[in-house]
Amino acid sequence: MVKTSGIDVKKVAKLGNLPLSADEERIYTDQLSKVLDYVELLDRADTKNVEPTYNPTESRNSLREDSVKPSLSQEDALSNSPKNTDGFIVTKGVFGEEQ
Amino acid sequence: MQYTPVIGLEIHVELNTKTKMFCSCSADYFGKEPNTHTCPVCLGLPGALPFANKEALEKCLMIGLALNCKISKDSYFERKNYFYPDLPKGYQISQYRKPLCIGGSLALHLGGGKLIRINRVHIEEDTGKLFHKKSKTLIDFNRSGVPLVEMVTEPDFKNVDEVVEFAKTFQQIVRDLGASNADMERGDLRLEANVSLREIQKDNLPDYRIELKNINSFRFMQHALEYEIERQRKLLEQGVPLYKETRGWSEEKKESYLQRSKEDAHDYRYFPEPDIPAISFNDSDIERIKAKTPELFSSKSKRLETEYGLTSETAKTLVKQGMAGYFEEAVKEGEGLDPKAIANAIVNKRQSTELSPGEFTGKLREVTGKQETSMGDLEIAVLSVIKHNEKAVGDYKNGKESVIQFLVGEIMRETKGKAVIDKVLKILLEKLND
Predict the structure, then answer these.
(1) Does residue B263 register a pLDDT over 70?
(2) Who among B134, B136, B213 is closest to A90 (CB)?
(3) Which residues of chain B does A17 touch, with a Cβ-Cβ cutoff of 8 Å?
């Protein structure tokens, strides 16, 4: 098994909310390590004089005025939800506060 | 071992823009039918593209400027990834490495004008609202995507009073700016505190901190902090090590409870939001925004103090009563009258402020006499008492000196007992013997 990138598939699966079997864990460890090795080729590029970027476009301040446009109807908004009641979307019980 | 609290504050405040942060849905969601303020963007439907609200960015910038922050010349949004049904996309669009505003400060009155350093002020989107039922959770996405500003201080607070003063001042600032209604009961303003205890002899920060959440009033914050400081002190004194964890506050039980421990600390995997181009404000943008920023409560009352020689208490009361504009108008109208006298007359409601500022100063002149140009609060009170007690004044002039006591009493009542007796006597005798 290639382990150069030392990927922790268990952790990645947990963060991605994906249940993995032991077999799958093995398979993905191998595959994802290869992907990382491949991406590591980028390290060979000389970036000494290159400005870091975080967005592929040079565009700046693409902004919108603060004026209201119509929203979806409640019926349309709920139409994709597997379950709803009294205008609310229903999901299985979750507790605790996020953010 | 002696300990001292180390507290940092994080405040989220919802902006009062007409539309949401990244779509044109109405942000006026409070009390509305569930899921009637949504669109593909704020429902996180595939292919929907966010489009940032200019007004929201400017309001965030105003808040940053009011807190003496530097405005980033280069700012961008990032995705904060987590799984929870309050955000349908699986991530929140927020800021991380390049917040809009960085490194400010705010002076307290406590601690001799102690400076609290501001780490950052950034903009993000609010989440949907969840209602937890027994075995299911109900979701309303009307709030999803409403502009939210997050302000984070450095851990500079040493006691609960400092935290409360800061939070209240912050609320006042965002209201003055017209950036948010900052109504805590409606959830416009949410407080979180990071609390730990430092050994008094040591300079370095503790190696743990407890994050307190679910605090929805200033009073609860005070209770929560006091409780938490005591809880930690007891544990540390017993030699129990403390770790990083998140705790909620239950006002009913008057205790904090564990929400999330170190083991499941989140890894949000922030990365730049590829769907929104970078944000940059240049100097002229910042000047333009500064120019349309309303005057703050604190700077307004400071200005009244220095410009008109008012006491800090009077200046603050004027601003608090919303009478600062009226006062300045009255000063203009009442040329020759002492601004201090005008301010006092307004604050103590000596004349009805239903009158126009011109009529108000006119009345004031009648009471104080036209020839008087410089008139302190006390003098006005003395003259008013003399005017309204003709009989007593007459008695005095006929040699009945004992009425002085009565007149002094009336003046003390007029000045709500704040005047110094010796001064009252001196001025009263002056006026009577005029």
Answers:
(1) no
(2) B136
(3) 83
CA distance B233 to chain A (A): 26
Query: For residue B371, what pLDDT is reported?
Result: 39
Cα separation, B255 vs B226, whole angstroms: 10
Cα–Cα nearest to B121, from B148, B102, B146, B96: B102
- Tell me what percent of the residues of chain B surpass a pLDDT of 90: 54
> Which residue type is seen at B58?
E
Residues B107 and B184 in one domain: yes
> Taking the CB of residue B191, how many other CB atoms lie within 10 A of it?
27
Task: With CB atoms and an 8 Å threshold, state whether A61 touches B18.
Answer: no
pLDDT (0 to 100) of residue B373? 38
Based on the domain organization, do B365 and B236 belong to the same domain?
A: no
Q: Same structural domain for residues B276 and B315?
A: no
Give dist(CA B196, CA B3) in Å, integer. Answer: 10
pLDDT at B117: 97
Number of structural domains in chain B: 2
Question: B319 and B354 in one domain?
Answer: yes
**Which residues of A fall below an 8 Å CB-CB distance to B?**
11, 15, 17, 54-57, 59-69, 71-74, 77-78, 80, 85-99
Does one domain contain both B260 and B327?
A: no
Q: Are residues B257 and B352 both part of a single domain? A: no
CB contact under 8 A, A74 and B267: no
Q: CB-based contact (8 Å) between B277 and chain A?
A: yes
Domain boundary among B256, B291, B326: B291
CB B136 within 8 A of CB B154: no
Do the chains contact at B86 and A96, CB–CB below 8 Å? no
User: Are B158 and B235 contained in the same domain?
Assistant: yes
Q: What's residue B9's pLDDT?
A: 97
Q: Which of B270, B291, B312 is the last residue of a domain?
A: B291
**How large a percentage of chain B has pLDDT more than 70?**
97
How far apart CA B345 and CA B361 sit, in angstroms, is: 9
How far is B31 from B42, CA to CA, in rounded Å? 18
Distance CA B228, CA B257 (A): 10
Q: Could you give phi then psi for residue B399, rounded to 5 degrees?
A: 95, 0
Q: How confident is the model at residue B423 (pLDDT cuts 50, 70, 90)?
A: confident
Domain carrying residue B399: 297-432
- Band the pLDDT of B82: cuts 50, 70, 90: confident
Domain assignments of chain A as residue spans, ordered by start = 1-44
Residue of A nearest to B136 (CA): A93
Subunit contact A80:B45, Cβ cutoff 8 A: yes
pLDDT at B115 over 90: yes
Q: What residue type is assigned to position B40 of the chain?
A: P
Question: pTM here?
Answer: 0.77
Lowest mean pLDDT segment, chosen from B25-29, B199-203, B244-248, B412-416: B412-416
Q: In terms of domains, do B333 and B190 share one?
A: no
Lowest mean pLDDT among B41-50, B184-193, B413-422: B413-422
Q: Across the interface, do B26 and A54 touch by the CB < 8 Å criterion?
A: no
